[in-house]
Amino acid sequence: MRVVTKPWGREEIWAESDKYVGKTLFINKGHRLSLQYHRKKTETIRVLEGSLDLVLQDPGGDLVTERLEPGDSYHIDPWKVHRFAARDTDVVLVEVSTPELDDVVRVNDDYSRDSQGKG
User: Fold this and answer.
1) What whole-number distance in Å separates Cα of residue 116 and Cα of residue 46?
2) Per the CB 3.0–4.6 Å rule, which of 19, 43, 98, 108 could disulfide with 35?
3) The domain defined by 2-108 carries CATH number 2.60.120.10
4) For the residues of 3-56, what is the DSSP string, one character each?
5) Average pLDDT over the chain, rounded to an integer
């Protein structure tokens, strides 16, 4: 297992191959990941603990928020603009994805990170 510290919390990568990646994200209350999309990477998340605000860009370009609770899952295709946020509670979620970990294009980032790079 590999642990990657992030400004919003941490991720534990527990499976990594040339076909898939499995990781657990720990998002601290009051923090959020960048508003981002992926060119190739596809991912599915499942909330384990806490209440996740999933921000998505609708077809008209507006940002809408869906609240996901423990047990809820969501699939994110390439080019879908999205953001994970832990507004009210710490959040723990599992993410299973294709292996393109560097395929992140940041539209907006609270921590002033580069527009392209690891999430």
Assistant:
1) 25
2) 108
3) yes
4) EEEETTEEEEEEEE-SS-EEEEEEE-TTEEPPEEE-SS--EEEEEEES-EEEEE
5) 95
